[in-house]
Amino acid sequence: MHLRTLTLQAIGPFAGEYTVDFDALGQAGLFLLEGPTGSGKSTLIDAIVFALYGKVASAEASEDRLRSAYAADDVESVVDLVFEVPSGIYRVRRTPVYQRAKRRGSGTTTANASVKAWRLPAGADLDPATLDSVGVPLGNRLDEVGAEIQKAVGLDRTQFVQTIVLPQGEFAHFLRAKPEERRGLLQKIFGTEVYEQLALRLAEMRRESDRASAAARSALSSGTSQLVGAARLTDDEAADVRTAIDAAVVRGDGLVAAVRSVVTGRTDELAGWAAGARAAAVAADAVRRAARTHLDESTATDALLRRRDALRSERAALDAAADMNAEAILQLTAARSAQAVRPLVLGADRAATMLDAARKTVTAALDGTPDDIATPPEGTDLRTHVQAAGRVSAEAAGALARLVDVEAGLESRRRAVRQTRHTVDDLVAAIASDDQWLATRPAARAALLTELEAARTLAAAAGERESALTTAIETVSAHTALAAAEQTLAEAGAARTAAGAAAVVALDTERDLRAARVADLAGELAARLDDGDACPVCGSAEHPAKAVLGADHVSAEQVERAEADRAAAERSLHAAAERCSVLEERAGALRARVGSVSAEDATERCDQARSALAQARAAEADVVRLVPALDGFDVQTRSREAERATAVARLAGERATLEVTLLDLDAAEAEVVTARGDHPTVAARHAELLGRVASSATVLDALAERDAAQDELRRRQEELAAGLDEHGFGSADEARTAAVDAAVLAELDRVVTAYATRLDRATAGLAEPAIAALADDLLVDLDAATTAEAAARVEAERTAGEARVAEERATAAAVAGDGVVASGTALADALGTAGPVCRLADLTGGGGGDNARNLSLATFVLMRRFEDVVAAANERLLVMSDGRFELVRSDEKEDVRARNTGLAMRVIDHRTEQARDPRTLSGGETFYVSLCLALGMADVVTAEAGGIDLGTLFVDEGFGSLDPHTLDAVLAELGRLRAGGRVVGVVSHVEALKQSIADRIEVRPTADGPSTLTVRAG
């Protein structure tokens, strides 16, 4: 995998947009990523890992730190990476989740993470400005892009970080770690959790097998107890069964056959006993059935004898009541005939009554009718006369019906005329008011327009007056700043004078101390001479008259302190002088800005400009107010004019309506006067005519009702005569005498019917074959038959109960026996399954006789991977250490409490041929040994991942602990990586590396906080 370009914006300490061209840096094969601590070197590595996997390099760090604290709210945080793998060139663009300012309102909102990826064509231009227009999109969902990128790279995030970005600190820890800690890192890198999970699964399977075996044993014991209870065995028999089954379990071989043999012996014995009990129950049941048959026959015969005696008694009683029954039959026949003609009698009586009522109705109708209708002319039929009078009155009433409505509507018409006259008067007054109001509008509009034009003229000067105010304010501010600057300059001048005096004092003090020290230097040298020591001045070993050290001797430390004080005083003087110079320049610039204008004049001009601007602003407000006011004035005028035009048109319409309404009212009143005649109103005349019509109809209806009643009476009398003749009655009175109440008739019918029914039943019963065949002297002993049947039934129930108990014991024992055999089979299966599982669990878990070193499967796999890492690391370590150091894996436990062996490590020092603990290595030795481990780990991981080509590597900090010779060896090894086609990025701030590596990425913090990035290549 080769990195091509990286572009980042608003990421970490980088507020702006920066692009790293790895192709240019890779020309030399080795580049340096350098900068002060905290400036953002690790941010570049985090950006690369984030672009590929959506997470930063450290598993413990959060992606929240990717958003730059120095970026503006409208600047998006972006990482854009282009890389090349054997399958092609890919580009991925990611944004992290971060909080940004809301576009509307205050506060912040969450900007969600996003991703886009493309596959670029071969030879594509990688200029960021043109990349958006090329490439095949791979998706924009986090999950699908993540899968595509990992598929293309061939490494997951952990493997990538361990191979592309070599974290020296972690491998130094790995070098010195205890086996248990080393185990965790190896497991994380190589993903060997599956072997540990396999061992755990086998251990769980062993526990499951143990539980299954225990459950099967418990089930066999429980089934044996159920067999003993179901078979109701004695204590000795139960003990024999349990002993036999326990012995079979102990033997193991033939367990199922032995259990089946014990069960079969007991169940066969119970089955035989049950068969004998069933035979005895069958014989007793046959005796019971015979006794029952005899009892049923005796009971039936006794019942027939009792029934025959009852029927004979009933027949004798019926013969004695035969005469009374005949008389009741005759009375019942006459009553039924009278009941048949009774409706005809009643119908004739009702018809006569109705005729009398109809005649009275005719008389009453004639009495309530006008005389000219009720009294027809002589020789004229009453019905014809009444019909003619009613018809004449109806025709006259129909002719007046319309005029009744006309008469009723006259008053509403009169009110409508009055209302129309009032409306005309109101419209005339409204038109006059509109004319008066509209006459004042032109003058008012002209005044409003004049005020608007004046306000617009004044508002137009607002920009000019605002500029004048700004200039005045700047002049006032310059006066204020000038006063402050002159005050600060005076203070700085005083400080410069004081600093100059202090520098002179410090210089004099240093000069005096140096002179005193030089003057007393002989005494200082003599004080250090012992007898026999060579004098540093003359070389003599004898010192007959050594100089004496003065009491106020000045030491070298005092001179150095004085020199430091003098240098500090000079720096303070220089700083004070520079400050005075800066303040002088600033004060001069402010004096040039204020010119000849005094502070009082500037303030007065500022107040005048502010007042003028306020007037212009007020005029702007007046314009804003007056423009809609003028438009509203015109709208009101046009609205009033429209209202006047509407009133004029309506006045013409109302006057025309009034004329038409008056003509219509006059015509209606004339027609009503003609129609009422000598009556007070048309309605009164119309009501009288309707009354004559109603009286005529009443008389005609009464006459029709009388004629119908006469016809009904005649018909009813004819029907009555025919009915009396048919039922043998001479007259209606004879039929009334024969009639009885319904209750009496029903009782006669019940008595006659009951006698006939009882006689038929007694005759039929005595004629039945079973009763007729009975001998007159026949007797039955029912008690003896009942006693015999009861005894046979008790015996049958006893034998049946014994058989049922025997059957239940045999059946229960058979079912329980099947359960015992099934439990034995399950136990045999569980014991057969548990053996291989236990052996495999012991083997993979580090136990068992076949695992002499007690290594778990996961530890064994890690140990082999660890050996590969050590072998790969030694290929470089022997070169870097000039053949001195070699790593070896050790089976010894570095800690007595360690659970596993095989992951310990020792360093062979070939100078002493002794094995050393890695923790005894120096800082520099630890660095390059850790580097070899990291490179070896990268080789093994890429081999595990299918031989992935790692075209770009980053080697992290740690070079400062190396001596020059070792540093050269490390750089030579990195050079070999470069010769193999890899591009190596060294992350360091060691000065020697800056001199050795020309191509670099420089990261520098600025005074304002954010960092800058510069790529120097070629």
TrEMBL record:
Q: Please verify whether the record's keywords include Hydrolase.
A: yes
Q: Does the keyword Coiled coil apply?
A: yes
Q: Name one Pfam family in it.
A: SbcC_Walker_B
The superkingdom of the source organism is Bacteria
One GO MF term on file is:
exonuclease activity
Domain annotation Rad50/SbcC-type AAA: ranges: 6-212
* Chain segments annotated as coiled-coil in the UniProt record: 559-619, 699-726
What name does UniProt use for this protein?
Nuclease SbcCD subunit C
